[in-house]
């Protein structure tokens, strides 16, 4: 075998190895990229329900929750964990008309309402941010603690919305809309509600707008 033939054989072997390694590297890189970008998800539809809910008032709330939990170790050493939670929420208040009971009297063109639902919170869209989280040495925040904090904050938002003016605004809005709609169709609404239901709706009807009138300043005496 001559020298030129040997060199040709060695160069061919090196080139073949280099090409083979390059093809192997490219194939593995593509497989790796495909493996990284592959995702799978499963969406399960549990149930579909027909609802007749009408939103009549919308409110925006911001609440600050100062959470602190103290625990004692061996009844001697106190250890605390703290957190500041700022919660923002959009609250929708309205009525679930599936709860209303009524009958139509076509001879007198009347809608006789025998039960009218109270305004309720239909939806709360919340956003939470945690600040100044301080963990104790042996008293630390867990995932369950964070979940409970969010549940408490949402419950507080729900109570605050029902205690405010949103239910009264929603009740006045729905009453006005119903009577106007009935009058436009030459119908009348006849409320024949149970006493407790009537009294409760009257409480929601008592809505007084805030009147901000400037007070006159006393005149300066000469």
What can you tell me about this protein's structure?
- This protein is of the alpha+beta class.
- It has a domain at 53-205.
- Helix content is 39%, strand content 32%.
- The chain has helices at residues 3-37, 143-163, 166-184, 195-205, and strands spanning 53-73, 77-96, 101-105, 110-115, 120-134, 188-191.
- It has a three-stranded antiparallel beta sheet. Strands 3-4-6 form a three-stranded mixed beta sheet, covered by helices on one side.
- Helix 3 packs across helix 4.
- The longest helix is centred in the N-terminal third of the chain and has 35 residues, at 3-37.
- It is elongated.
- InterPro entries: DUF4230.
- It comes from Runella defluvii.
- This is DUF4230 domain-containing protein.
What's a concise summary of this model?
This protein has helices spanning 3-37, 143-163, 166-184, 195-205; strands at 53-73, 77-96, 101-105, 110-115, 120-134, 188-191. With 222 residues, the protein is α+β, with helices and mostly antiparallel strands. It has a domain at 53-205.
Topology:
Layout: H1 3-37, E1 53-73, E2 77-96, E3 101-105, E4 110-115, E5 120-134, H2 143-163, H3 166-184, E6 188-191, H4 195-205
Protein name: DUF4230 domain-containing protein
Organism: Runella defluvii
Pfam family, one: DUF4230
List its traits.
6 strands; single chain; three-stranded mixed β-sheet
The count of helical stretches stands at 4
Give the N-terminus to C-terminus distance in angstroms.
Answer: 131 Å
Which ranges are low-confidence, i.e. pLDDT below 50, for 5 or more consecutive residues? 1-10
* Major beta-sheet overview: 3 strands, antiparallel
Strand order within the widest sheet?
Answer: 1-2-5
Number of strands: 6
| Order of secondary-structure elements | HEEEEEHHEH
Mean pLDDT: 76
